[in-house]
Known about the structure:
Blueprint: E1 8-12, H1 17-28, E2 32-37, H2 40-52, E3 57-61, H3 67-81, E4 86-89, H4 105-130, E5 136-141, H5 144-147, H6 154-174, E6 179-186, H7 191-198, H8 202-213, H9 223-235, E7 246-249
Parallel strand pairs: 1-2, 1-4, 2-3, 4-5, 5-6, 6-7
Amino acid sequence: MGKLSGKVAVITGCSVGLGKQIALRFAAEGANLAICARSAGKLAATAKLCEEKGADVLAVPTDLTDVGQLTAFVEAAAAKFGTIDILVNNAVSIAPPHPFLEHSIEQLNLTMTSGFYATWHMMKLCFPYMKDKKDASIINFGSSGGDLGMDGFAAYAATKEAIRGVSRVVAREWGKHNIRVNVVSPVALTEHTAEEIENLPEEQKAYIMGGMAGNPMGRVGDPYEDVAPVVVFLASEESRWITGQNINAEGGGTIHA
């Protein structure tokens, strides 16, 4: 019996990358899944892999910048499963790293809408199905890009810090409804990230890879083995006394102990 057996999890951004690996890990732990992403083909491939692990899966192609599509996705998940126990707000669209002075308002709007606004909307949309259970969990995503102020990531950093801020507020307000809200700030190399990095200039590639391995462990994190288990823990009742926290799952690259 898995740590999430009998639970219904809604996860965004599951076509590739960390979202896909989280969905696979949740499936292995017994959760039933409602997953979304923009790419219908890649989303269907993730759904098939999760079903092979025993999960009942609803996969809905969704543009996270469209509130109507978010609403339809959550309503479809509730209609299929009857409830929602876990919400994982993973997805965000970002531009390749470039200086703040070169950031356009259009790039900022895209990152904020797909990341912060989508997280904001998804929490509100899922609330009626999550409130007043024995235990319900929301996991949002921050980043050391905001915590450390990494060069070239102004829009991304602003979005992730906004997510961390609203997560603290909602954790405080929704504790009375037995809804926990935590943030994971991961560093791991997914296949999707590796492909994106490969297309960057050598100087940027070296900077990003060096940052990923610049931790006491001296290696790059694996999304399935190193990050997804942290999300499983925060989704499970094993973390029932943890809320309003930011967990840095990145090998100690930022140490706050």
